Amino acid sequence: MLFSLLWKALLQTMYMVAVAGFIGSLIGMPIGIFLATSGKGELFPAPTVNKIFGAIVNATRSTPFIILVVAIIPFTRLIAGTSIGTAAAIVPLTIATIPFVARLIESSIREVDKGLIEAARAMGATPLQIVTKVLLAEARPGIVLGLTLTLVSLVGYSAMVGAVGGGGLGDLGIRYGYQRFMPEVMLAVVVVLIVVVQAIQSAGDILARHFDKRTRKN
């Protein structure tokens, strides 16, 4: 029985993390690229818009996740048709992912050597070519590690969303481990979460090393 419950909850958690991570990254990456390249004197100068986007991203990131879940319940119902269950949990998870990814992507791109940008400009590369062939190419290890951190954080968020009926491992731990006084279930949930996080982090580290030119040269 315990294995069956754990397996079902694990699948729900992986589904939530995968969908929210994919959609959140799909939206967050362009925002992060924009934030990293739209400051004064940068490739796509739009400092006013940059500040507006930055303020929105900061405001969203500053909101504790559990409060965000409750605050956007009407929006969640509009999108998912309900405020409980796995499908509903994806909505706040995705919204929390977008600013997180945006800042990580921005940070990774800003770490690229400015000399490479100037060299590309001197060779006649367009701003779009610089972004795609220089910035994103050089920032790949950092981007991979950033996305790995995002997925690890989403695993934790998905456990928190179980407190409001979001399903997954967090919901299992609360309903059985806490409310029904079954510590063995809580322990099993914690162990599974640790294994999942370790697997994601290890895969991300391997992929980042693959993209790191310094590591490959050695």
UniProtKB/TrEMBL annotation:
It comes from the Bacteria. The keyword rRNA processing does not apply. Residues 10-204 form the ABC transmembrane type-1 domain. The chain crosses the membrane at residues 15-37, 49-73, 79-102, 143-165, 185-208. Gene3D superfamilies: MetI-like. It is a multi-pass membrane protein. InterPro entries: AA_ABC_Transporter_Permease, MetI-like, MetI-like_sf. SUPFAM superfamilies: MetI-like (SSF161098). It is found in: Cell membrane. One of its GO terms (cellular component) is plasma membrane. One of its GO terms (biological process) is D-methionine transmembrane transport. Keywords: Cell membrane, Membrane, Transmembrane, Transmembrane helix, Transport. Belongs to the binding-protein-dependent transport system permease family. CysTW subfamily. This is D-and L-methionine ABC transporter, permease protein. The gene is metI.
